[in-house]
Specification:
Elements: E1 2-9, H1 13-20, H2 23-33, E2 38-45, E3 48-57, H3 62-68, E4 72-80, E5 89-98, E6 107-119, E7 122-133, H4 139-166
Antiparallel strand pairs: 1-7, 2-3, 3-4, 4-5, 5-6, 6-7
């Protein structure tokens, strides 16, 4: 299942990058989302910047519980590469979901890219993700569950980002 989302900010690529690599900003996103639990890490990885997040996904539909348990935890890592001359950046996105320990297992992988691109006086951030579940019997259900959770987080992130950049957060 593919998931593409984008938004525009009234800020430079440098300002947007500084925001999305700020731990306090990422925590605000999860607090506004009312995540049951979450964690955020930001660190250097050679020339790259790594942002890692994890959070609990909503209740698992009954049909999939026997394969993954009642709750899923989604982990996602973004490895941001050096900026281009114009401030544009790209990150590789990797992550996924595993079910409750001890439950016979399906996994869901999330992979793709996110980009920060200068557009006029602002910046556009775009996500192009691919979500794949390992178990054919519940593939569609699990992919949709994860896609919905990722979409909700990103849409919330876009709202928090607008407030953050305007100084109202």
């Amino acid at each position: 299942m593919d998931l593409s989302l984008a938004t525009s900010y009234d800020a430079s690529p440098e300002e947007v990058f500084a925001m999305i690599t700020d731990i306090t900003f990422q925590e605000q996103v999860f607090e506004q989302l009312r995540a049951q639990s979450y964690g955020v890490q930001v660190g250097d990885d050679g020339d790259d910047i790594a942002v890692q997040v994890h959070w609990m996904v909503a209740e698992v539909p009954v049909v999939a519980r026997r394969f993954v348990g009642h709750k899923l935890e989604l982990a996602q890592s973004k490895r941001w590469h050096r900026a281009d001359v114009d401030g544009a950046r790209e990150a590789d996105v990797d992550g996924g979901v595993t079910g409750t320990a001890g439950v016979a297992g399906a996994t869901v992988k999330v992979s793709g890219t996110t980009r920060i691109l200068p557009v006029g006086r602002g910046t556009r951030q775009a996500f192009d993700l691919h979500i794949t579940a390992s178990l054919p019997v519940v593939r569609g259900t699990l992919e949709q569950l994860v896609a919905d959770a990722v979409r909700a987080r990103l849409e919330n992130k876009f709202k928090v980002a607008s407030r953050w950049l305007s100084g109202s957060l």
